[in-house]
Design goal:
Aminoglycoside 3'-phosphotransferase, Chain: A, domain 2; AGP_Transferase; five-stranded antiparallel β-sheet; four-stranded antiparallel β-sheet; 2 domains; alpha+beta; ATP binding; 326 residues; single chain; Kinase-like_dom_sf; 41% helix; Phosphorylase Kinase, domain 1; Aminoglycoside_PTrfase; 12 strands
Length: 326
């Protein structure tokens, strides 16, 4: 899956000077730094791999997100560590004085983003990975809360929704009235989109499991894999800053957004594994998952600024969903 040609980076990619990196690490009492290396794949955050005198590889994560999103990610990494393969959090600081950003020291997880290798994988390898992903998604969604909403630094809901359906409806209405959206997709496509959302409103209203932990960016670029003893394994799930309490279908909509470009064995194997590991997924899940994924696509198209690859990708995906479901 070629994400580099599908999405723009949210800000110009830049590199910190070595002395600045060392200064930040010194604030964490880390010295004798060696092997500094920028990690690829980040679309809004910066990740720098380095090692210390004991040769332990670590990651300096420089966040471009809000304080709530940053603290949410830190809290989630700590909370799910015993169930999901995520990096250990060693330390973090809010609004680092030098960078004016939130920074964290994380464990370095070995592996390669799935999107960079999946095109070369054999069908049996795809099945092995899909089986593991089904289990991981089931484990993620077993974490539940007393309500839907945005999470905070104590791994609890700090900004609850009136209801999951009501929140989705309000987001859809705000996006559909956004002038940038009208400019970017046109009046005719907007009318088709509105009709599709209204047609499926009752499906979203009837969803029952709407207070599970949702990764909300669960796709191949945030999944690390590595080949060990001739077998591919999932070695990490990254980038949890968008996570919240909501419907697990959001993760399915995200992962299968580009289903036409994915290997045909992904879906049946992943879904079977998810259900085998006590994941609850109704027979008609696909339509609701596609509708919920429109929320992310519409967010892309209502961003200020010029992101041509992102806009083209979102418009194509929306048109595909309208054609499939309307």
């Amino acid at each position: 899956m070629d994400y580099e040609n599908k999405f723009d980076h949210q800000e110009p990619h830049y590199f910190l000077k070595r002395k600045d990196i060392l200064s930040v690490l010194d604030d964490f009492s880390l010295n004798h730094i060696r092997d500094i290396e920028y990690l690829s794949g980040g679309y809004s955050n910066i990740n720098v791999k380095f090692s210390t005198k004991d040769k332990q590889p670590l990651v300096l994560r420089i966040s471009n997100k809000s304080q709530r999103q940053f603290e949410t990610e830190i809290a989630i990494l700590k909370a799910v560590k015993n169930k999901i393969i995520v990096p250990t959090v060693y330390d973090y600081k809010i609004n680092h004085s030098l960078l004016n950003r939130h920074v964290a020291i994380l464990e370095f997880l070995p592996g390669t983003p799935l999107n960079t290798v999946e095109a070369s994988l054999a069908p049996e390898d795809i099945k092995i990975i899909a089986q593991q992903l089904g289990k991981i998604l089931a484990e993620i969604h077993k974490f539940s809360f007393d309500k839907s909403g945005f999470l905070g630094k104590k791994f609890n809901v700090v900004d609850p929704f009136i209801s999951f359906h009501e929140s989705c409806y309000n987001y859809f209405e705000n996006y559909l009235e956004n002038k940038l959206l009208i400019q970017r997709i046109g009046v005719e496509e907007l009318q088709r989109l509105r009709s599709l959302i209204l047609k499926n409103d009752s499906k979203i209203r009837k969803l029952t499991n709407v207070s599970s932990l949702v990764h909300s960016d669960f796709n191949q670029k945030n999944i690390l894999v590595d080949k060990r003893s001739k077998k591919w394994e999932i070695t990490g799930i990254l980038d949890w800053e968008f996570s919240f309490s909501g419907s697990p279908l959001i993760d399915f909509g995200n992962f299968f957004r580009f289903e036409r470009e994915m290997h045909k064995d992904y879906k049946p194997v992943l879904i079977k594994s998810y259900r085998q590991h006590d994941g609850c997924l109704k027979l008609d899940w696909q339509q609701s998952a596609k509708i919920l994924d429109l929320l992310s696509l519409l967010e892309f198209l209502t961003r200020k600024g010029n992101y041509p690859k992102t806009f083209t990708t979102a418009k194509t995906a929306i048109s595909s969903t309208i054609s499939d479901l309307l």
